[in-house]
Structure formats: C-alpha cells, structure tokens
Structures
1.
Amino acid sequence: MEYTIGTQALSTRDIVYRSLKNQILLLELPPGTGISEKEISLKFSVSRTPVREAFVRLAQEGLLAVYPQRGTVVSLIDSELVEEARFMREHLERAVIRESCSAFQARNLIDLKANLDKQKLCIEDQDYKEMFMLDEEFHHVIFMGCNKKNTWEVIQQIKVHLNRSRMLKLTADHNWEHLYRQHYGLYEAIEQHNIQQGDQIMQEHMALTIADQEMLMEKYPQYYKQRSAD
Amino acid sequence: MEYTIGTQALSTRDIVYRSLKNQILLLELPPGTGISEKEISLKFSVSRTPVREAFVRLAQEGLLAVYPQRGTVVSLIDSELVEEARFMREHLERAVIRESCSAFQARNLIDLKANLDKQKLCIEDQDYKEMFMLDEEFHHVIFMGCNKKNTWEVIQQIKVHLNRSRMLKLTADHNWEHLYRQHYGLYEAIEQHNIQQGDQIMQEHMALTIADQEMLMEKYPQYYKQRSAD
DNA sequence: ACTACCATACTTGTATGGTAGTATGGTAGT
DNA sequence: ACTACCATACTACCATACAAGTATGGTAGT
C-alpha cells in the first residue's frame, strides 16, 4: 500500500488552471475579458471538460465570473475586496510575527539569515526580479518557523485579490533598500524575541503594500467593478 | 442589458455540492469514507459531470481527497489545520471587533441589539438550535457593521475546518448564559467605543471554541490524519 | 502451502454530442 | 426613420461514451 501522491503528473485540468490563473494575475487576460470554454479548449487543443473544471476552480477563487448560458468573463477588480484583503493580510502577518518573536524554529532562523544575505546581494546587483521572489520567500520562512503552514496558504489565496491591482501599479517604484531594512528589523526582532519591535515593523511593512486604489480606479475604470446599488 | 444574476436557479452542480458539503460537515459522511462519482451520480439521478464539478470544489476546500484512478475519500481531519483555523479566526475576529469599537454603522447596531434580545428569549425557552443560529448571526452583523463582508466570507471558509471537530465534541455542553454575557459585553464595547474591552472579551470568547483536540484524536483516531513523516 | 501472474471490476480523467437559454443582426411592418 | 419580431449563432450545462490507471481475487505453476 504505497501511496506516492506528491509525484503525480499534472492533469490537463491543472495545466489549464495554472496557465489561465497566471495570465489573469499578470493582466495578460485583463479584467472584463470575455472567454469561453470552447475558445480555451481550442487554444489548448483539449476537450471542454478539463477546461470547465478549471473554470469551476477559478470561479471559486473569484477570478472568473460565470453567467450561465451567457458567457464567462475575467472578473473585474473589486476595490472593496482589495481593501479587505489588505486588512486580513496585515492582521494575520502581524499575529504571526508576534508568535515568531516568542518562539521560532532554529532551522528556519538560519534560512531567514541566508535569505537576508541574498537580498543584500540582489540589491547590489539590482536584480529586482530575484529580489521579488526573495521577498516572498522571506515571509514564507517566517510562517514555517512558527508552524503556520496552512495560514500561509490562506494568505496566498487572499493575496490573489491584491496582486492584480499591485500589478497595475507597476512594481518598479519599490524602495528595495527600505524593504531590506524592514526585513532585517524583522529578523532582529525574532532573534531577540522582541515582540513589540516585530509587530511595529510588520505594521509599517504592510503599509507599504497599499496601492492607491482610488487613483487606479480613475486611471483604469474599465478594470474595476463599479459599486452601483448594493 | 438587464443582468438578473442574483436570482438564477440552482444548477445541478450546486445542489450536489451543497448536499455533500452538508453531509460532510454534519459527519453523516465521516472522515475517511470512500465515495465515488458514480455512486453519488446514481444517488442523485444525475450524470457524473455535475458530480465531478462538485467534487472539484469540495477538493479545493479540503473536504475531499481525490486520488486519480484510485478513488475519492472524505478528507481526514487535520489537527494542525484545525489549530491554525482557530488561530486565524481569533486574530481576524479581534481585528474586526477593534475596528467596530472605533466605527460602527448605526443600522447594524440596532440589529445587534435586536439579536441580543432574541438570544435572551432563546435561553429562557432553552431553544439551543435557534440560539446557535443567533450566535452565528451576531458575529455576522458585527462584520457587516464595519464593512468587512468579504472578511466574513473568508472566515466562513476557514471555519469549515473547525466545524467537524466541533461537531465531534457534541455542542450540547455550551454554557449559553456565559455566551450571552460575552455577546452583551461585545455590544457594550461597540456602543461605548471601548476598544480595549471589545478586544479582551473577543479573545476570551474565541478561547471558548477550542475543542480539546488531543482528547478527540484519542477518542476518534480513525477520523484524524496521523502526522507521519513531515 | 506459497508465489507469480492475469482477468476483471472497479476508479478518475478526457472527449463529444445534444439541450436550453441568451445576445445579436437583419427584416418586415408601421 | 423607427420598432417589433424572428432566425441564427453563440453561451454554459448536462449526459454519455471511451480511455487509462489501479485494486482485487482467483488460478496455475512451483
């Protein structure tokens, strides 16, 4: 009874799901774009069944809006949802950093330091793409270090709704130096069990991710859901 | 261009999805139960297609575990996930009550008071089923009152993983009187903008929902995922 | 008695055809 | 010119058929 689950090949459904999700998050499929099962099935040279099942998953995540017998569109960005996603992320990340400052696995602390060193290199090399990934990984390691794997997964789900508006903002204007100093401060707080410092820095750190929603809504009104009667 | 979205009839897929989800959460389909698409499609007298799509959704929510070409089982309860669900819920509910204590919609404050009055009646009548629903609704109103509709939705998702172990505990041992006093305290805190009181009470309130996981794991080992090598 | 093998009956995954509801563009009538 | 109507071409939804992998039990061979 040997269960070898982790290594199964990707199904057609998963391939379609991942590809569409990527295209949506990268705005290659802009909000409001109409797509049909048939169109996608032709593009991937597969039948409509796995496409439909990918649609079901994407609809559940709020990335597609399916109107029976009428069509399917890439969902518009819901500014209210974006704001709440920011809210949820802030409070969960702060709760996790506080926990990390009181108890953290030694192994992950080493990873954290190694990550920081790589960040420093990236800034010198101005390798912002790699820096972006290290940023993600830094937060991930923090979650792993205080046994919050599932919480990390939930955050990833929530962040989906932040990603598209962040993509609109063109991430180029990040102040990577500032980001690094904050990361270092978080590392310090964990190492020295300074809960107050950790919480404080994380709060400031989260504030950085606030995109100027109203500005974006004016600039790209066709991408945003207009709150009419509610 | 009249969009009448809210009133569409339930699709076969949704009917199957809701029914299965209910049965799983009520433990009528206990963790570990094997179910097949064909079996369900026969039971509902529908084809496999909508059943499969319901399976996809339930699998994404972590309620089903699908093993390609081998079978599908109702997922075992993951005690680690349960603990993190409790963690996430606590910190989100506390963040929301703090926000509610600083700004709350007048209309929802009225609803909150009305809900409290109904709770009092239920306790007198010992109508615990209705009391259970009012408890849910009470928290829901709080979220609505500080514009956190989507956060409520996320909590509902998270709570799925708490529900089954709470169901095992047999909810009969709730101290409804205590619950009511806490709810009243929360209402007071919102009305009087007492952030500290709100946060304090909510923290205690959340502690109530902690089921004794280890006890449950010993009593129902077949329902729990055994953490082997990890 | 025990083991290796294989037929069979499952499982989920994928493809395809048909159905019902909806948007659209053209046409006939005013 | 404008409106009401209808044929047509879509859409997502559901049913069915086929494909491919897996568990199981029986059987033949040792």
Note: Chain A has two domains: 12-74, 79-217.
2.
Amino acid sequence: MPKRIGLPADLVRNLVAARHARQWSQRDLAERAGLPQAHISAIETGKVAPRFDTLIDLARVLGFDLLLVPRALVPAVQSLIRDSRRSGDGEADEGERPLYADEP
Amino acid sequence: MPKRIGLPADLVRNLVAARHARQWSQRDLAERAGLPQAHISAIETGKVAPRFDTLIDLARVLGFDLLLVPRALVPAVQSLIRDSRRSGDGEADEGERPLYADEP
DNA sequence: GGAATTGATCTAATAAAGCATATCAACCCG
DNA sequence: CGGGTTGATATGCTTTATTAGATCAATTCC
C-alpha cells in the first residue's frame, strides 16, 4: 500500500481514465493545463493534495466540471452519468469532444 | 470588485447557503469541520484557494459531495438538484438532515 | 542497438495554505 | 448601557503545494 495523502482514489481513476480516453500523455495534459508534468504525476499517484483551483483546471481541460451535489442525490447523479456514457454519444452539445471514447 | 483568488463564486454561494440553511455560524462550521473560523471566513470571501481535501471536509459536514461530471451533463445535473430542492423534502434517505430548509 | 516516449522521481527554491490566537466593528438583545 | 454573537482581519509560524529543471527505468519503434 503506497501512502495516499491526495485525492480520493476513484476521483483520480476518473481523471486518469479521461486522460487516456483522449490519448494524452501526462506531458500533453500538463501543457494544456499549464502545469509541470511532475505535478500531474504527483497528483495521479496520490502524493499531493492539490489545491481546488488546480483540480478545476485539470478537470476543465478534460471536459469535466466539479459539482457540489447533496449527498442524497449522489446515486442519482452517478447513474445519470453512467447512463449517458452508455448510449448518449450523438449529443453535439457543446464544442467538446465526446469523451468516454475507447477507440477512435 | 474585491479580488477573488479562491473558489468559483457560485460554489462559494452554495456553501454559504448550506451553512445558513443549517443555521450555523462560521464558528459552528469551523468546529465541525475541524478548521479555524478565520479560515472559513477566508474561504467564503475568496481570499484563499483551499486544498481539495479541505473543501471535501467542508462539503461533507454540510451534507454534500464533490462530483466530477462531464460538461455536457452539467445542466442536467443542476436541474436535477434544483428539482429535488423544490419537492423532494421527505426523502429520509440517509442519516442526514433534509437541508434546503428555510424555516424550521 | 539506438532513438524516442512515457511516467515516476529528485533537488532546490518560492508561493501559499493552514493553524493558533487575538482583535475589531457591527449587530442584536436584555 | 453592557454583554453576547457574528464575520472579517492581523500576526507569527509551520506545513505543503507548486514550480523549474533534470534524471531515470521501462517501453516502443525503427
């Protein structure tokens, strides 16, 4: 067990998954988010607890947002996300990439 | 315009609103979250960009969670929260207080 | 084999959060 | 008026994120 002082494991997993889905290396992400690659690595391996605004930057370039949701609604929101991942591809909602794409 | 270096304004508004809904003073919240009152004030006035884990602590004692949601789904999630605020009071979901209560 | 990429690690320095504590103006209430 | 509460602010100090830069093992590709 490596020592985790940083973000919750599942949150990190989602971030890493999103990065992989875009086929970005840590250096790619670092450049777009304006952070050093070493810092990305530290965050993804749970060695630091980043500032909230740092995390916002990361999430933003990956097409995410950080939302404050009432605990009672968490399951609902999670399944909403899960569902949209399954079938909701042809959204053309904003100027953002589909995400969740495994194969291009 | 005071200088905001901290959290997004709407997120702060939600935190403050939640605290007010519970009728908690900054000192009440500080005690429960294990933070100094001065720090709560600094966060709520946007003078600091708290660490992620600090924000998690705050959100937790206020009955919230921080979720990473795809940008395309943000409006849906927000309206989901808004709707449940209107009619969804008698949930008795978990061991948590109803929240969003204006008058006791 | 050699070049290039990827992710982790190190050093060293700076900036900023975090903590403890105290103070202060504004307010309400008896 | 005097006392209590609330939120903002100040100081001094410790801890930690953040940065720039380089390096390194493992992997992939030619």
Note: The mean pLDDT of chain B is 85.
